Amino acid sequence: MYIALAIIAAIAIYVVFIYNGLVTARQMKEEAWSGIDVQLKRRADLIPNLIETVKGYAAHERSTFEEVVAMRNRAQAVPAGDVEGRAQAEGLLSQALGKLFALAEAYPDLKANQGFLELQASLETIEGEIQMSRRYYNGSARDLNVKVESFPSNLVARNFGFTKAPFFEITNEADRAVPTVKF
After folding, report:
1. What are the tens digits of pLDDT across the range 47-85?
2. pLDDT digits (tens, 9 = 90+) for 142-183
3. Which residues constitute the domain of residue 50?
4. How far is 22 from 16, CA to CA, in rounded Å?
5. Within a domain: residue 28?
6. Considering the domain boundaries, does residue 128 fall inside one?
7. What are the coiled-coil residue ranges (predicted)?
8. Residues 179 and 97 sit within 8 Å (Cβ to Cβ)
């Protein structure tokens, strides 16, 4: 009888250990997503200033400005937990920003404008931080997914509602390219 109770207690302790590991992995994934969200918000906040700076030099390029604003609004409208939707919207925003920087190439005075150069440098810094945040998130998602799929933690995960986390990846090859600006 004592042996049976000891086995049951050992199994219960093991289940608690696995459950706590799953909770930790899920929280790491949520923290990582929050990091991506912060960087994307920083980029979205920078875009209106960038557009206003470029507008002063290229007022007749209205369609490019409207596209950037539309893609920014679309990216911000994606629901909080929709990783795939956010990745797609951010990819489209990156494409629109690439067009904006390509437009800047046609205006030598703009390329020499200190405000524009500072905004561009800030955007490049944020893009690098977004890449680091994406890698951290994907690593956290991978760790959670391994625990959700591995035996015996998959038994605990299934019974307590833990699911695989999607990776933050860009599916369109054209979206993968970071806008390059040459001055």
Report:
1. 888 877 777 766 656 777 788 888 888 888 888 778 888
2. 999 999 999 999 999 999 999 999 888 766 555 445 555 443
3. 2-176
4. 10
5. yes
6. yes
7. none
8. yes
Domain count for the chain, please give it: 1
First-to-final CA distance of the chain: 80
Spatial CB neighbours of 43, under 8 Å, sequence gap ≥ 6: 93, 123, 126, 127, 130
What is the CATH number for 92? 1.20.1440.20
Look up tokens 């046609």; give the residue. 106
CB 32 within 8 A of CB 141: yes
Does some domain include residue 181?
no
Nearest to 36 by CA among 112, 135, 139: 135
- pTM confidence score: 0.69
Query: What's 180's DSSP letter?
Result: -
Looking at the domain assignment, is residue 76 inside a domain? Answer: yes
